[in-house]
């Protein structure tokens, strides 16, 4: 599109080494350019994860551009979209419609194999907002303004509220306006969620979708999911895909193009809104606290600052300490309940374990299964699970991967299958193993091949290690309370690490 004005919206600090001519853009917009729409752009950015922020700025950019007299229309493409054609039909349609959208799927089919791909959009939105177009009409401007207003405070990944970044809001748009066109042609927005519905081929060097020249391909999930998908199809859709060699050719080409682009020094820079000024990574809990409170936003206009005794960073750390002490108090009560239960049932358990050990083959796996069964019998599993869930927001990703990566390598967790059955996780870019341990295990999501409950029971020793190794933000002089177990007394941490052994051995 040689007559187009290419604009990059960069949701980061201004890098000193950016050269527009080198990057191929006519213009770059940064957060402070949105000051007419957003009262405190940096504070607003703090309330979002990187994915939420990148999607939240879309209508702000569209509205800003449509204020210009020389702007006839706005077409948005995600940074992982590649144009293969001039988009002539799309551009013509944009002269006749105020809003253009592309769907995740566009064919009716009763095939059970397709059900998975219809459930996904129910979670993340029926339209893929990696592309949209607004004509600069009254309707186009009104839609952009309405969307902008909604995303100001509600561009979140929050399944409980029915939100997935910017996308779910646009599902409402057909209810509001008639001047909208859904571009269902298979040449647009070719991506891993629809290649099984379209025949992708190549003739005379031109890529075709159902026999017509492809206009743009969306490599969504390609880089953030890495080895868990093959770029333009995945394990679930593979049996339904035709001409996989063409899709693999495109994926290889894209991976090589990415590798070449990432050699630029600018790509080595971390996301500047990902950490406080002291270098500490900003956790999602801090972002949610700030975004949810207008009072905190007023009190701390620069939430990234750490050089003051009255900083948002210090406020969060103090609040963490109070919450941690509260959790410790609750955990202590829970551990005392567990300890009393162990003491009460100890003689019964010993008798049962001895009887079981006579019947079982002397293998570690069988012995662990019998002990896990006795733990379930004693009623402690649920209490331990609840305690671990309470601590999860403070568990570091590094510790999760350190403890559970060997489990995944052993075959007890299939990352690819987990992503394919949980599209919200795939779209968010979160490490699948981290998501399963942090959230999925408590949301009853299967690990493949195990159920969530079975996985927890088989690896409860690792979860207890997770609990005991998670630093608690309390005063360094504080001590964990003593808990009496059998005839001995151990500190809470030691008890947490040895709870399995305490339940099945003589005290």
Describe the structure.
With 507 residues, the chain is of the alpha+beta class. The protein has 3 domains: 7-265, Spore Coat Polysaccharide Biosynthesis Protein SpsA, Chain A (Alpha-Beta Complex); 273-307, no CATH class; 315-504, no CATH class. The protein has 23 helices and 15 strands. The protein has helices at residues 20-23, 41-46, 50-56, 58-66, 88-94, 115-124, 138-154, 167-170, 173-176, 222-225, 244-261, 284-292, 294-299, 312-359, 364-378, 381-391, 397-409, 415-421, 423-428, 432-438, 452-458, 460-469, 492-504, and strands at 7-9, 27-29, 73-77, 81-83, 99-103, 127-135, 156-158, 163-165, 180-182, 200-203, 206-209, 212-213, 216-218, 482-485, 488-491. The chain has a 4-stranded mixed sheet with strand order 3-6-5-9, with helices on both faces. Strand 1, helix 1 (20-23) and strand 2 (27-29) form a beta-alpha-beta unit. Helix 14 (312-359) crosses helix 15 (364-378). The longest helix is centred in the middle third of the chain and has 48 residues, at 312-359.
Structural topology:
Elements: E1 7-9, H1 20-23, E2 27-29, H2 41-46, H3 50-56, H4 58-66, E3 73-77, E4 81-83, H5 88-94, E5 99-103, H6 115-124, E6 127-135, H7 138-154, E7 156-158, E8 163-165, H8 167-170, H9 173-176, E9 180-182, E10 200-203, E11 206-209, E12 212-213, E13 216-218, H10 222-225, H11 244-261, H12 284-292, H13 294-299, H14 312-359, H15 364-378, H16 381-391, H17 397-409, H18 415-421, H19 423-428, H20 432-438, H21 452-458, H22 460-469, E14 482-485, E15 488-491, H23 492-504
Parallel strand pairs: 1-2, 5-9
Antiparallel strand pairs: 3-6, 4-13, 5-6, 7-8, 10-11, 11-12, 14-15
Helix pairs in contact: 4-7, 14-15, 14-16, 14-23, 16-22, 17-20, 17-22, 22-23
């Amino acid at each position: 599109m040689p007559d187009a004005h290419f604009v990059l919206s960069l949701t980061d600090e201004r890098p000193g080494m950016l050269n527009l001519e080198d990057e191929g853009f006519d213009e770059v917009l940064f957060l402070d350019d949105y000051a007419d729409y957003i009262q405190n752009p940096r504070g607003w950015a703090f309330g979002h994860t990187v994915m939420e922020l990148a999607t939240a700025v879309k209508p702000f950019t569209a509205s800003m551009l449509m204020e210009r007299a020389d702007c006839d229309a706005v077409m948005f493409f995600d940074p992982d979209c590649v144009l293969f054609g001039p988009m002539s039909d799309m551009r013509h349609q944009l002269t006749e419609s105020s809003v253009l959208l592309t769907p995740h799927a566009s064919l009716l089919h009763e095939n059970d194999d397709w059900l998975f791909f219809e459930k996904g959009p129910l979670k993340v939105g029926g339209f893929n907002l990696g592309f949209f177009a607004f004509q600069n009409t009254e309707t186009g401007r009104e839609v952009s303004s309405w969307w902008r207003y909604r995303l100001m405070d509600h561009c979140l990944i929050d399944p409980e509220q029915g939100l997935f970044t910017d996308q779910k809001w646009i599902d409402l748009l057909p209810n509001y306006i008639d001047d909208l066109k859904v571009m269902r042609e298979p040449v647009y927005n070719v991506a891993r969620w629809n290649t099984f519905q379209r025949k992708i081929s190549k003739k005379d060097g031109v890529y075709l979708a159902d026999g017509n020249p492809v206009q743009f391909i969306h490599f969504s999930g390609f880089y953030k999911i890495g080895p868990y998908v093959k770029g333009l199809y995945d394990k679930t859709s593979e049996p339904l895909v035709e001409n996989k060699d063409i899709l693999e050719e495109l994926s290889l080409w894209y991976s090589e193009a990415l590798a070449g682009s990432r050699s630029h020094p600018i790509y080595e820079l971390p996301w500047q809104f990902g950490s406080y000024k002291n270098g500490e990574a900003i956790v999602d809990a801090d972002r949610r606290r700030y975004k949810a409170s207008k009072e905190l936003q007023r009190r701390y206009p620069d939430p990234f600052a750490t050089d003051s005794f009255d900083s948002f960073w210090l406020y969060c750390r103090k609040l963490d300490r109070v919450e941690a002490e509260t959790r410790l108090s609750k955990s202590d009560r829970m551990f005392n309940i567990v300890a009393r239960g162990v003491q009460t049932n100890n003689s019964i358990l010993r008798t049962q374990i001895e009887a079981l050990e006579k019947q079982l083959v002397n293998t570690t796996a069988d012995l662990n299964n019998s002990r896990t069964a006795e733990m379930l019998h004693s009623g402690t599993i649920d209490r331990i699970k609840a305690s671990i869930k309470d601590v999860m927001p403070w568990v570091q990703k590094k510790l999760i991967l350190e403890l559970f990566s060997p489990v995944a390598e052993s075959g007890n967790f299939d990352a690819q299958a987990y992503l394919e059955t949980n599209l919200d996780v795939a779209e968010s870019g979160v490490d699948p193993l981290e998501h399963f341990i942090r959230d999925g295990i408590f949301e009853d999501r299967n690990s493949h091949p195990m159920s969530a409950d079975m996985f927890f029971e088989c690896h409860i020793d690792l979860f207890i290690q997770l609990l005991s190794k998670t630093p608690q933000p309390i005063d360094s002089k504080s001590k964990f309370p003593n808990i009496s177990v059998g005839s001995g007394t151990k500190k809470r941490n030691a008890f947490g690490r040895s709870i399995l052994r305490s339940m099945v051995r003589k005290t």
